[in-house]
Amino acid sequence: MDWQKEDLKYIWHPCSQMKDYETLPPIVIERGEGINLYDINGKCYKDVISSWWCNLLGHSNPIINNAVKKQIDSLEHVIFANFTHKPAVTLCQELMKVLPEGLCKFNFADNGSAAVEMSLKMSFQYHQQTGHPEKKRFMALSDAYHGETIGALSVGGVDLYSELYKPILLDVIRIDGPDCYRCPYGKHCTGHWEQDDELNCSSPQDKSCRCECFKNAEEAFQKYGAETAAIIVEPLLQGSAGMKIYPPLYLKKLRELCDKYNVHLIADEIATGYGRTGKMFAFDHAGVSPDIMCLSKGLTGGYMPMSIAITTQEIYDAFYDDYLKGKAFMHSHTYAGNPLACSAAIAVLKILKDENIIEKANRRAVYFNKIIKEKFLPLENTGEVRSIGLINAIELVKDRSTKEPLDYTKRTGYQIYKKALEKGVLLRPLGDVIYFNPPLIIKEDDMDFVTDVALECTKEILHL
Ligand SMILES: Cc1ncc(COP(=O)(O)O)c(C=O)c1O
Questions:
Q1: Minimum CA distance residue for ligand 1 atom 13
Q2: What average pLDDT does this structure show over 275-294?
Q3: Fewer CB within 10 Å, N- or C-terminus of the chain?
Q4: pTM greater than the 0.85 cutoff
């Protein structure tokens, strides 16, 4: 059977111009192991993007496999309204041990965008039910990405995804967020924080930076704080914007501002959670808690679609009353709290703890960042190498001194992607930003190999 041909007969792939598949048909993957994916001809691809940032502990991890297999023999799914099961309760108990303080009520869904939708609705309804019907709007940062459903797309700020849909999106208040590579204040933070006792959180390595850009948030809150229900942020790392990194101090300041204006702070930790930034959650760097946190992706190690919007007792209490008062949160997803997903998620937390995964990943991250800088900084088209945890991004530019981007019509990142696939590495550049966001278990020899391939391909495509 010609699987590629059959695929193209039926399948409309996500986030793809299907015409591109004429020259690069879909690669038919048969199995995975660790960071390796194998196609039906046995060719190996090193998955250094964690299959859309969700694979946390390697493909086909034996411990997660066993947890799901064991669960499937007793219960595959049950309606989650008025029913529960041990895996869901156990998962919440385990998450309580690692979550930022104050987060204690768990509302389940089945993908990241759904958790974002749920958080927005929850915040809006909270204010409606606590005497602030005027709080109907949401704030979000420029270049944000929160998913593709209408609400999530509305708070997103990446034109590639949302521009066309603007006529049908919510009227969101957009704040010009941090832009540390092209900082208008001339500061320079590339993603290494130091503990700063004075600030009581991590602060940027550019000591002169005090998040001057935060004044944009202050101005927006002054103007619109009274009518705003919540602000949503991707903490520290704006992934889809090109792995843009900003300092924890920004979150700390935002927490204070939100408290002042009675605005909820929603942490979209869908991409940053679970050790991706070097700590369990990106908010941990700032030493403050959000009012609502969205989790997905790494939550099940990339095994099962699941997400959770986790919130505080205070928000939960605003919905708690006699049924006829109509205060319940009437939101549901069929697969909410799916037991198979919960069993995978429990196994993930156990592995993280038993094997001390995040600490070990942080040690290897130093090496990864070092070799990436050594290899890419000498290239004249490398604008910047930025990193956080094991995530490293190389922004390719036309002119390093002016930071002028490459001509986007050349699709340089896409050409590098195609070349790297030929050589057995799965990169998926965001525009002309090449990045690595590997499973946390990646080892040094794989780091050497994937960075060599990425470098070779970059040089070939840019004729360097
Ligand atoms: C920060 C962030 N929020 C939300 C989402 C949406 O999650 P999903 O694709 O599961 O809907 C993503 C997905 O990439 C994301 O990175």
A1: 147
A2: 98
A3: N
A4: yes
